[in-house]
């Protein structure tokens, strides 16, 4: 009689009026995307402050719900009839499924928490919790412990049904993808930029991706990596696009122009300029990079300032204060680490000087850049862009 489902909850803080509608719409799209391709059709039903999903096997629903940015709590549950009797029977059934019989379970400290979204239910929340608790004591002989229970039985009275659950899992959290706008991520093959992209998505930015290759001076290995990374990140948003732009020749021109120990920073500025032009075409309102302060010599504060000066879009650095080991741990958690660790021919190591200047100024860079025709170069680079649509499985 009771049927399995999963309750999904999101932070309601600060959500009012139009914001709330937009937030819920984005969340719904993300949820739909995460449930696409499930082994059975999934029903998604929006209630007040909670979304209920059902239809596919529970483990699959739970696994998919965990991908959804904006969901704070993933709560496997039973949906049962809108009555006290059904609730008691379902609690008993849920406990038996998890713990077997009272003999097998032994003594477990437990608590019942009840809340009502339907205020017309015949019992109040406290009364319902006490009533169900008494039946559990009767059947299982367990001691009640409201402060530090081993088993927490949650009962949520909705308008047409009652939900019973024994566990709450932490979801991805954050704000639904798209609810904060769009950004273009500069994606290399390393650990940092995919994690930066994920953190940007977590704050509600829908992300497009651009990867610069050293072609024609380097092979396609970095593009394969970027492709695989975007496919992994696509699980969190759907419809991700990867733009690949070869800059090998432009890198060589910078070297010929005598960039010397400014070569890396000059390349970074060129990437940012080209990314800005692409972002404007795509309607993205910010650029995202994986810089972490002081991680490598190209990421000193002075160099960050020099790079940033080349764009008028906000240049977001979600990882600016992260340590490398924190970044790698996060990369493992979100599934990009295995790809990032593969070897590739990175365009940045190409033509890289023996020593990288750590205290550059925009003026120094401008004097190198004057020897090149940037107004012509950027549109030319953009004309060579290749667009891929890597899809998550
Ligand atoms: P990552 O681990 O992301 O490769 P990193 O530690 O290697 O970063 P850098 O190579 O200095 O650091 O790059 C800093 C940032 O510049 C990257 O995080 C990325 O956002 C951007 N970037 C660097 N190289 C490329 C590239 N080939 N294509 C696109 N973006 C790049
Ligand atoms: Mg790199």
Task: Please give a structural write-up.
This protein has 393 residues and is α/β, with parallel strands linked by helices. The protein folds into two domains: 168 residues, VC0802-like; 207 residues, HUPs (Rossmann fold). It is 40% helix and 18% strand. Strands 1, 2, 3, 4, 5, 6, 7 and 8 form an eight-stranded mixed β-sheet that branches. It has a six-stranded mixed β-sheet with strand order 13-12-9-10-11-14, sandwiched between helices. Strand 2 and strand 3 form a beta hairpin. The chain starts with a strand and ends in a 5-residue tail after the last strand. The model has no long low-confidence stretch (mean pLDDT 94). The site of magnesium ion has 4 residues, from loops.
User: Cα distance, first to last residue?
Assistant: 34 Å
CATH topology-level fold name of the largest domain? Rossmann fold
Helix residue percentage? 25-40%
Number of helices: 14
State the name of the first-level CATH class of the largest domain: Alpha Beta
Average of the residue pLDDT scores: 94
Tally of distinct domains:
2
Series of secondary-structure elements, N-terminal to C-terminal: EHEEHEHHEHEEEEHEHEHHEHEHHHHE
- Give the cofactors and ligands: adenosine-5'-triphosphate, magnesium ion
SSE class = alpha/beta
The CATH architecture name of the largest domain reads 3-Layer(aba) Sandwich
Q: So what's the overall shape?
A: elongated
The proportion of residues in beta strands is 15-25%
Reported for the largest beta sheet, the result is:
8 strands, mixed
Number of strands: 14
Radius of gyration equals: 27 Å
């Amino acid at each position: 009689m009771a049927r399995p489902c999963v309750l999904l909850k999101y932070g309601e803080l600060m959500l009012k009026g139009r914001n709330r509608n937009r937030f819920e719409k984005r969340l719904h799209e993300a949820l739909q995307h995460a449930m696409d391709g499930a082994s059975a059709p999934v029903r998604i039903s929006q209630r007040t402050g909670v979304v209920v999903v059902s239809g596919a096997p529970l483990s699959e629903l739970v696994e998919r719900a965990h991908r959804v940015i904006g969901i704070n709590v993933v709560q496997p549950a039973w949906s049962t009839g809108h009555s006290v009797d059904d609730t008691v029977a379902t609690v008993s059934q849920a406990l038996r499924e998890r713990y077997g019989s009272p003999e097998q379970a032994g003594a477990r400290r437990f608590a019942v928490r009840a809340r009502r979204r339907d205020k017309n239910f015949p019992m109040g929340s406290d009364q319902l919790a006490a009533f169900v608790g008494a039946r559990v004591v009767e059947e299982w002989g367990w001691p009640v412990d409201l402060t530090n229970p081993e088993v927490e039985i949650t009962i949520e009275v909705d308008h047409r049904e009652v939900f019973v659950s024994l566990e709450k899992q932490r979801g991805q959290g954050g704000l639904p993808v798209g609810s904060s706008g769009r950004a273009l991520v500069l994606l290399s093959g390393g650990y940092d930029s995919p994690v930066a992209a994920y953190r940007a998505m977590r704050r509600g930015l829908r992300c497009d991706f651009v990867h610069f290759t050293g072609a024609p001076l380097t092979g396609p290995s970095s593009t394969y990596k970027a492709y695989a990374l975007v496919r992994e990140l696509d699980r969190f948003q759907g419809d991700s696009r990867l733009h690949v732009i070869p800059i090998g020749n432009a890198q060589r021109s910078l070297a010929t122009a005598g960039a010397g120990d400014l070569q890396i920073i000059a390349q970074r500025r060129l990437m940012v300029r080209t990314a800005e032009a692409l972002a404007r075409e795509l309607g993205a309102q910010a650029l995202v990079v994986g810089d972490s302060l002081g991680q490598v010599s190209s990421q000193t504060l002075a160099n960050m300032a020099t790079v940033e000066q080349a764009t008028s879009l906000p240049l977001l650095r979600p990882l600016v204060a992260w340590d490398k080991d924190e970044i790698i741990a996060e990369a493992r958690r979100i599934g990009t680490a295995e790809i990032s660790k593969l070897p590739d021919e990175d365009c940045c190591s190409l033509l890289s000087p023996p020593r990288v200047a750590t205290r550059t100024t925009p003026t120094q860079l401008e004097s190198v850049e004057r020897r090149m025709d940037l107004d012509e170069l950027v549109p030319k680079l953009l004309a060579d862009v290749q667009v891929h649509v890597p899809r998550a499985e």
